[in-house]
Amino acid sequence: MTRGPISRSLYLLAALVCVQAAAANPLLAPTVDYTADVEITRDSDHSFNAPARYVYGGRRMRVEHVGIVTLVDLDRRETTSMIPRVRTYWRPLPFAAPASDGRRWVGVEAQEAALLGEETLLGRKVTKFHVRGTIFETRTAFEGDVWTTAENIVVRVEGTGREKGFSAPIKVTTVQLVVAPVDPRLLSVPETYARALRSDPGPRQDAD
Predict the structure, then answer these.
(1) pTM score, two decimals?
(2) Domain boundaries of the chain, sorted by first residue
(3) Looking at the domain 23-195, which fold is it?
(4) pLDDT of residue 44
(5) Looking at the DSSP assignment, which residues form a beta bridge with residue 92?
(6) Does position 202 have pLDDT exceeding 80, yes or no?
(7) For residue 206, is it left (φ>0), alpha (ψ between -120 and 50) or beta?
(8) Using CA atoms, how far apart are residues 154 and 19, in angstroms rounded to an integer?
């Protein structure tokens, strides 16, 4: 008489475990705010273990890389470049292609993903996937492995990027991850910054 309820309980427990194991999804944007310090290895631009910081605040982001800060506003569909060293920023630029979320700036914008297994990185349970898609703001074609937390934060990337007929290895390794609300001031241009003249070419953009 008791086998039915016990079987149902075991079934529900097994289903819960499966749901938890499959919670990570590289096809979706992160579900929490966080700050990640990473190292990027990308032979195509001769950057080896270049440090970067991602500040993710949902619909807005901050990407710090090689002295340049890029602010991303998904609602306005634009990015703003800044150089903190000289407290200068350039006019906002529209996205080169539509973006419904921030994955291309903070991970891999995957179109396909295959589950490979579970591991532990930075003291967190992560899920490993083999993905195909694009990476970085340049939307470089990418195929390789990503390790994703249950909140869809990509904490590691290893694969190959292909652009203009050439291919090169790409590796992104998170060395520190803090999951917590971010300071909104980090996601906007400080009032003390001066806007560059339209005749001044800005980082990764040409004057018009």
Answers:
(1) 0.82
(2) 23-195
(3) outer membrane lipoprotein receptor (LolB), chain A (2.50.20)
(4) 54
(5) none
(6) no
(7) beta
(8) 19
